[in-house]
Design goal:
The protein is mostly helical. The chain contains 5 helices and no strands. Helix 1 runs antiparallel to helix 2 and helix 4 runs antiparallel to helix 5. The longest helix has about 35 residues.
Length: about 170
């Protein structure tokens, strides 16, 4: 039986910790901004931008860990129907492989778009149009890195299911 690779689980776990740190930083910056604006009547010009950028990275990086830990929405109605009407787990395994495979295709298309955006950002030397300007490639690369992590995780899940694993049924 082919098992989900431990190194992928560890990688996703490290990335999840980084995402947790991003959420803490977003929270601290938000509280700081609220105090600066409400108490001192002196809002910052940069905290919203930084929080937005961190949120972009958080969303893309955290998705692979979410797949690994069954955090994405599944359609339990179909799983329950199949479980009621069949005596084996095979139909549920086929549905799971099909669903994760569709996700692989979708993430692959998203990765292709992300790579295109990165190339464009680099070739045109694009910068953000916010009060603090950073290269757009810093933001668009979040999509590429996140999609690569999601693809790696999804391929491992599908291989685990094909190898008769039951963790992702």
């Amino acid at each position: 039986m082919l098992k989900f690779p431990v190194f992928v689980k560890k990688l996703n776990h490290v990335v999840a910790i980084i995402c947790g740190c991003m959420v803490v930083l977003i929270s601290v910056l938000t509280v700081f901004e609220a105090i600066a604006r409400g108490v001192f009547n002196s809002p910052t010009s940069w905290s919203l931008n930084v929080c937005t950028w961190l949120l972009i990275w958080f969303a893309f990086l955290g998705s692979a860990y979410s797949f690994q830990e069954h955090g994405h929405v599944g359609v339990d109605m179909f799983k329950d129907y199949v479980d009621k009407h069949t005596k084996t787990r095979f139909p549920r395994r086929v549905m799971s492989v099909a669903g994760y495979s569709i996700s692989i295709v979708f993430i692959g298309v998203l990765l292709y778009g992300g790579i295109s955006l990165c190339k464009k950002a680099v070739s045109m030397h694009q910068m953000t149009t916010t009060s603090i300007q950073i290269p757009m490639v810093v933001l668009t690369s979040a999509m590429v890195v996140g999609c690569l992590l999601m693809l790696l995780t999804l391929v491992c899940i599908v291989l685990d299911l094909i190898g008769k694993g039951s963790d992702y049924l």
